[in-house]
Amino acid sequence: MIVILGATGTIGNALVKRLVELDVPARALSREPEKLRHQLGEWGGSTIEVAAADAAELESMRRAFAGASQLFLAMSNSPRQVELETSIIRMAAEAGIGHIVKISSPAYDPSAPVAVAGWHQKIEKVLSESGLTHTVLRPYAFMQNLQRLAPTVVNQGVFYGCMGEAACNFIDCRDIADVAAEALTNREAAGHVYTLTGAEVFSYPQIADKLSVLLGKPVRYINMEPEALRRDLMEFGHMPLWLANHVVEIQSMSVALPEKPTDTVQSLLGREPRTLDAFLREHVDMFR
User: Fold this and answer.
1) Are 54 and 60 in contact (CB under 8 A)?
2) pLDDT tens, position by position, 212-235
């Protein structure tokens, strides 16, 4: 039995859908089980069991792990991430789970520090010391996160950042989920660390140009100083300090450490990753 922690998250939800397509049994965990059951009804997911569970409630997790052999571990970033994921890994080992697929982040680099990457580094160390077979997925920027730019594109025809002209790796979360499914269903793919990107890199000015063509109106990227962007994210985006810091840090990392795509998705799945052009076309109505 595969347990999916984070089944209503962007990657976890796509993984549930993929396992439905593959007709693979799994137990999907959620704090909103009815929402997930409704989706499964639409997808015809008769092989998926839904269980109410909360990573912060250890007893609910112990019940969820009963009889499981594999765990997909994806949690929203938060200041409690190291504490919660460490507890889950130890609990999974106690429950007899033999393989964990963990969503991590690009490797921590002290020359361009990203605090959240440091959290994942600590969790990966616990995972390595657990003795469990583990597969670590290190995806770069999610294409889905570009949807957060939509409000200012709609209202002002602009979006903001602090990346300048730097190119950034993007990946569709559905490709991350497909790689996770491969690791969970193909023993040969398990037990490795995978850095995941799309096939191309793009700068924010290039994304502005793509949106301009799709929308038939000018869209501009406005570059800001990191501290100014941090203030705006907190004041207008209502982000807590740690999350505003994270957004600024990952954009600053793209400037400090030039990014280039990997061929991991293609080599594992036998197909090219989804493209940014296709993603923007699919979601263009959000930006109108």
Assistant:
1) yes
2) 999 999 999 999 999 999 999 999
Q: pLDDT grade, residue 55 (50/70/90)? A: confident
Mean pLDDT of 78-93: 94
What pLDDT sits at residue 37? 87
Rounded Cα gap, residues 67 and 178, in angstroms: 24
Q: Which of 32, 91, 37 is nearest to 66 (CA)?
A: 91
**Is a pLDDT exceeding 80 seen at residue 45?**
no
Q: What is residue 106's DSSP assignment?
A: S
The owner of tokens 């569970």 is 53
CA distance linking residue 78 with residue 231, whole number of Å: 19
- Find the Cα–Cα–Cα–Cα dihedral 19, 21, 24, 28, rounded to 10°: 40
Cβ-based burial of 219 (10 A; exposed 0-12, middle 13-18, buried ≥19) = buried
State whether CATH 3.40.50.720 applies to domain 2-142+171-197+259-273: yes
DSSP codes of every residue in 122-143: HHHHHHHHT-SEEEEEEE-EEG
Q: What ranges do the domains of the chain cover?
A: 2-142+171-197+259-273
Could you tell me which of 84, 91, 87, 33 has the C-alpha nearest to residue 62?
91
Residue 267 banded pLDDT, cuts 50, 70, 90: very high
pLDDT digits (tens, 9 = 90+) for 155-195: 999 999 999 999 999 999 999 999 999 999 999 999 999 99
Nearest to 162 by CA among 257, 258, 251, 254: 251
Q: For residues 4 and 288, what is the distance between their CA atoms, to the nearest angstrom?
A: 35
Q: What whole-number distance in Å separates Cα of residue 238 and Cα of residue 255?
A: 25
CA distance 276 to 213: 14
Alpha-carbon distance of 284 to 288, in angstroms, equals 7
